[in-house]
Specification:
286 residues, 5 helices, 22% strand, four-stranded antiparallel β-sheet, 29% helix
């Protein structure tokens, strides 16, 4: 079997990816502010398209073929409650108080992709569901902190899983780590090699070299990790109808440390909390 080519970027190409990443960050911040009871996910989709195109970028997801014969119709993936990923924006399902909304967003700027996801509580969300989202976000940052020059791909996988297991013990909850979906390489295409699982032993897989860019994206559930795809050929839901959360950032491997391209500060603040220095170039810091 022929091995997939891993795309390594130059510094100037990573800088272009940073610009795409900031478009995604600004779009998600606009959507976070707009998401409220009574708002439809299609209205959020329209806002995302306006924001992305207003920045001179192109939505990554709209028309994306994936593994389906039906191109993805939305600008964002809007996944509510038991929907894990790839939820199709719709005018038929206004958000309700207590919902948990995962928003995945991608943008292309000058041929380079940025990809990120957040989970947003709508109104007053039950404590266990909030804990689920917070644990998922913590596991994302644990994974990003493991993006270190000279390491291996599954160092990230192991860091994500270890964070989840620690939160299970601390919180007295059981989370499912979704198994068939995960992170990926990213650059001139949204999905590239290597595929990044959110669990596993460290020290295996692709070496983390300067110029490698990855999308790290844990997906957790409050029950089974098993999922199924709906008849729309896109929306992935939990098989036991328990709720899910999804967080994601695009990160580049640099000599100085991980540079989170889809975070406003390059990941500096959250990584510092974990004792890790972010690889934010001095010329772009602040």
């Amino acid at each position: 079997m022929r091995r997939e080519q891993v795309e390594i970027k130059s510094r100037s190409e990573i800088l272009l990816m940073r610009e795409a990443g900031l478009v995604v960050w600004r779009t998600l911040e606009a959507l976070r502010a707009a998401a409220a009871p009574g708002v439809t996910t299609l209205e959020l989709d329209d806002l995302a398209e306006q924001t992305i195109r207003g920045a001179g970028a192109v939505p990554s997801f709209k028309g994306y073929p994936g593994n389906s014969t039906v191109p993805f119709p939305g600008v964002i993936c809007a996944s509510v409650n038991e929907e894990v990923v790839h939820g199709i924006p719709s005018r038929k399902r206004p958000l309700q108080d207590g919902d948990l909304l995962s928003i995945d967003c991608g943008a292309i700027l000058d041929g380079w992709h940025g990809d990120s996801a957040i989970t947003v509580p709508i109104g007053a969300v039950a404590p266990d569901e909030l804990a689920l989202s917070e644990a998922c976000e913590r596991s994302l940052w644990a994974g990003l902190a493991a993006v270190q020059l000279g390491g291996r791909l599954t160092d990230i996988s192991h860091a994500v899983e270890s964070s989840v297991l620690a939160d299970e013990k601390r919180l007295g909850l059981e989370f499912g780590i979704v198994e068939h979906y995960g992170g990926h390489g990213i650059g001139t295409q949204m999905h590239q090699a290597p595929h990044l699982l959110n669990y596993g032993r460290p020290g295996r897989g692709q070496k983390l070299v300067k110029g490698l860019a990855l999308a790290v994206e844990p997906m957790l559930t409050l029950g089974t990790p098993d999922t199924r795809e709906l008849d729309d050929h896109w929306t992935v839901v939990t098989t036991d109808a328990t709720w899910a959360a999804h967080w994601e950032h695009t990160v580049a491997v640099t000599e100085e440390g991980p540079w989170v391209l889809t975070a406003e500060d390059g990941g500096a603040a959250r990584l510092a909390e974990l004792g890790v220095r972010a690889g934010v170039p001095a010329a772009t810091a602040g």
